[in-house]
Each structure stands twice: as C-alpha cells, then as structure tokens.
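Researcher: Next entry in the queue.
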Amino acid sequence: MEENKITGKIIQYAIKVHTFLGPGLLESAYKECLYYELLKSGMKIEKEKPLPLIYEEVKLECGYRVDLFVEDSIIVEVKSVESLHDIHLAQTLTYLKLAVRRIGLLINFNVLKLKDGIKRVVNGY
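Model: Structure for this entry, 125 residues:
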C-alpha cells in the first residue's frame, strides 16, 4: 500500500478513536485503541517496536520504542499532551532516521479537534 493511503487510513482510525473517547485520557488508552482499530482493519502493525541505535559498527539497545509501526513503513507517535512542542517533532524525526523510514505521524489526542493534533513528519534521509 502506498504511503499516502496508509497515513490516510491511520488518520481515519485515529479520528474514530478520538470521536469515541474525546480528549483528556492517558496516551496509553489512545495507543491501545488505535492499535486495535488498525489491527481490526487488517493492516500490518507492531506496537512498542524496539528501535536500536547503531553507533559506528555497534548496535546499542537503548530502550527506544516506536509507539506504532504500520505496514513496515509508517511510524506513529501517540501523545496526549497540552500542546505539541519541537521536542515531540524531534523525537519522531529521530525515530524515522534510526529506522531509516521516510514518513511518520505525530498524533496528539489531547485536543478538541483531532485534525489540530496531527503532524505529518517527513525524513529527507
């Protein structure tokens, strides 16, 4: 499936979750519900996927974990914060670089309208 179609589906299911739950819950609740919706849709999805750091020739297990990894291509970082900051964007971009992936979605569920909490992040390699 093409990246834009995948991100469109992810956003569609994120909106469904947000419409049902509303803002104000913990990040883990939104992540679990979005995971469930994506899994139910038949998409390939991994939750809390370990992401090693490669430094020179050494693979370091530093405890980095991608919230959701969809169709072996899209990284989804789920937040439930008052507002997104540059550090959240930097975290998502770093995960994209470490995973050698191009597209990520940073989704903050703690907003009144979910469209205001979605950021598409692109890694230029």
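Model: The first helix runs from residue 3 to 21.
Researcher: Noted, moving on.
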